[in-house]
Amino acid sequence: MVSSVVAKLLGPSLAQGLKLWIPSGATWGGVCGVTLVYLTDWRLILDYVPYVNGKFSEKD
Questions:
Q1: Model confidence, pTM
Q2: 51/34 Cα distance (integer angstroms)
């Protein structure tokens, strides 16, 4: 359904080209997300990940 809407808006050849770029876009999005976590306060972001959150519990 989405591909038919994109094909109508952009044209069939451009819609086919966009389908080829989806894996690359997902990969770069993941790389940018990991880089953002690395460059920011990683502890603040990883506190929301359940598995990692238990590793850093502070016992007073």
A1: 0.54
A2: 17
Q: Do 15 and 7 meet the contact criterion of CB atoms below 8 Å apart?
A: yes
- For 22, the token pair is 């989806």
The closest of 18, 50, 39, 44 to 7, measured between CA atoms, is: 18
List Cβ neighbours of 18 (8 Å cut-off, separation of 6 or more): 6, 10
pLDDT in tens, 6-56: 778 878 788 788 888 889 999 999 999 989 888 887 777 777 777 655 666
